[in-house]
Amino acid sequence: MQIKVPRGTYDILPPQSSKWHYLEKILRETAEVFGYREIRTPIFEHTELFERGVGESTDIVSKEMYTFADKSERSLTLRPEGTASCARALIEHSAYSGLLPVKWYYMGPMFRYDRPETGRYRQFHQFGVEAFGSLSPYMDAEVIILLVEILHRLGLKDYELHLNSVGCPKCRRAYREKLISHIKPVKDLLCPDCQGRYEKNPLRVLDCKNEACHAAIKGYPVLYDSLCDECREHYAEVRKALSDNQVSYIHDDNLVRGLDYYTNTAFEVHIPGIGAQSAVGGGGRYNGLVKACGGPDIGGVGFALGMERLLLALAEGEEEKAGIVDVFVAVMDRQYEDIGVKILTDLRRAGIKADKDYTGKSPKGQMKHADKLGVKMAILLGEDEVKNSFVTVRDMISKEQYQVGHRELIDFIKRHIKA
RNA sequence: GUGGAUGUAGCUCAGCUGGUCAGAGCACCAGAUUGUGGCUCUGGGGGUCGUGGGUUCGAGUCCCAUCAUCCACCCCA
């Protein structure tokens, strides 16, 4: 049996890898414009980190983690998301004791054992940012503005930003009570999933897509109405900051993020038309996280973007047609191949992207190859050239040919590439 | 995890009710009078028809299982 990639994983080959480079470049540049710097953490961590940092009741921890025991029987887990690792690193290196806020970005593979489909993989890639050590609503606004700026730079205009506040533990507890007493009488009408949610995390019943559940809980109390003054004020300031900076959003009472450590601001970005998995990113404030992981009581805000989903949204866009290399060295007679190799090396050492044939193609075949690589110029080397110490440079677009001495070749090529 | 669809050359797909059904287009390679590309023409390589069983005289074509992909649910990136 042929060995294939494991379920939910895939290879990224050229030319697709070029699209990744493009995406990565935009993400990096934009984050750096906003003053974030890159952090790289291990791809696996102690299982406990995610259990504590993400929350035992979440789908991620309860059923989606790639957990394994290493040879010393340590329980390790392939990271399902990036925030917990950042919090761990922040604490481990006491990064919070320096200049605040600590502003980091990361990108890389994440792992979740879930049913694969378009836009959802078991090994997928996220880009995320985290800002630790600020409680300011302007900090919340900054990460959202950054997120929107990234979409803008990627040319993605057709998105929806959903925004809500899930309050602090205090107001959420009050809300939870209200919600439970509202649902209790109709509990039996809910779908089995929601019955389970009712026990574990009643807030999750709200965003159940099931019609029957929706009908059953009709008229349910809204979280916003239970926010304490402080949380309400914070949310108002975030909204004002967004409006002041021309970021449009949709207030969404039903937006309840699945991760336990979120407080106050929660947001999610959807791009319609990329399949069922339309959420390209989401995030929010998580004031309880660092402390829950054993660090000081400092807050944080951040978001994560799904890179596969961004690429999916980008797919309609421009196709990069740049040549793979700029120059192709073709030998008209195999006996001069060694000279061709020397010329090729000279070109490359001068920083000129160049290649040659290595399959013994005929002169014609070599020209075809050159054409397929999309080179600007071909260097032809045959008997005439060798005997008279020059090479023929063919402009593949204008078809003009030039006789150039070896000494002037590099300069000639460089000038010609620019033109 | 639940339900449904699909799985034939590198890619996109034909192949009706089981018996020249192993094909096309694209891609790749080689030629079209011998030192040169993009068009056209000709030829060529390449597939245990996802995998494993079963039914049958005979199975891409029927049945079962399994793996994978896709869709819906769930959830999120």
From TrEMBL:
The keyword Signal does not apply. GO terms for cellular component: cytoplasm. It is an enzyme of class 6 (ligase). It is found in: Cytoplasm. Its main location: cytoplasm. Its EC number is 6.1.1.21. Residues 1-316 form the Aminoacyl-transfer RNA synthetases class-II family profile domain. GO terms for biological process: histidyl-tRNA aminoacylation. SUPFAM superfamilies: Class II aaRS ABD-related, Class II aaRS and biotin synthetases. L-histidine binds at residues 81-83, 112, 126, 130, 257, 261-262. Keywords: Aminoacyl-tRNA synthetase, ATP-binding, Cytoplasm, Ligase, Nucleotide-binding, Protein biosynthesis. One of its GO terms (molecular function) is ATP binding. Gene3D superfamilies: Anticodon-binding domain (3.40.50.800), Bira Bifunctional Protein, Domain 2 (3.30.930.10). InterPro entries: aa-tRNA-synth_II (IPR006195), aa-tRNA-synth_II/BPL/LPL (IPR045864), Anticodon-bd (IPR004154), Anticodon-bd_dom_sf (IPR036621), His-tRNA-ligase (IPR015807), HisRS-like_core (IPR041715), HisRS/HisZ (IPR004516), HisRS_anticodon (IPR033656). It catalyses: tRNA(His) + L-histidine + ATP = L-histidyl-tRNA(His) + AMP + diphosphate + H(+). NCBIfam families: hisS. Homodimer. Belongs to the class-II aminoacyl-tRNA synthetase family. This is Histidine--tRNA ligase. It comes from Thermosyntropha lipolytica DSM 11003.
